[in-house]
Amino acid sequence: DSGVTQTPKHLITATGQRVTLRCSPRSGDLSVYWYQQSLDQGLQFLIHYYNGEERAKGNILERFSAQQFPDLHSELNLSSLELGDSALYFCASSARPGRERPYEQYFGPGTRLTVT
Amino acid sequence: AQSVTQLDSQVPVFEEAPVELRCNYSSSVSVYLFWYVQYPNQGLQLLLKYLSGSTLVKGINGFEAEFNKSQTSFHLRKPSVHISDTAEYFCAVSDVRRGAQKLVFGQGTRLTINP
Question: C or N terminus of chain B, fewer CB within 10 Å?
């Protein structure tokens, strides 16, 4: 168990809909990362938040957005869903600089999104 | 920008045989290197990492990897595999300058252990 939790585990929805994926980082971690894993694109970085602020963006579509709340949990919002958005979405967290192992990212179990 | 190439998409081996999973990377700056394992229907678990120092790093479950800067490689090895090692393995890099920010992953290597 990495200590990172993600809900829900599975999500099935229709095209055009909007969903919210939730992530709680390990206790004490300030950084949250979101990744998308799909058969055609592999594992791709989407976005990084540190203590509530966006720090880096990857190949994240404009239809997708994220935020990190004061209690450090994060949500990834996916809207106007398309069939191609079906994927496994992972959240990861890492320790703040100065703490132990700041370069390691700990991954949650993922949310499997199926768009029909 | 960094990129990672895992040279084999699938590697079948017999139980108790040695295995090497190959990873090459491309980067204009110094990088940290990682190997992650993904068991079926699970998240990613860190196997080992190279940050600096000794180029031979040891990880969990008997795996080790060697960093070769001149060949820009970070191959993963295990002298004797078990059925339980059946999983997908991902090589990843991150930019040293920016600390623990995004990981760039390879496409993965599916390791299948045959009895």
Answer: C
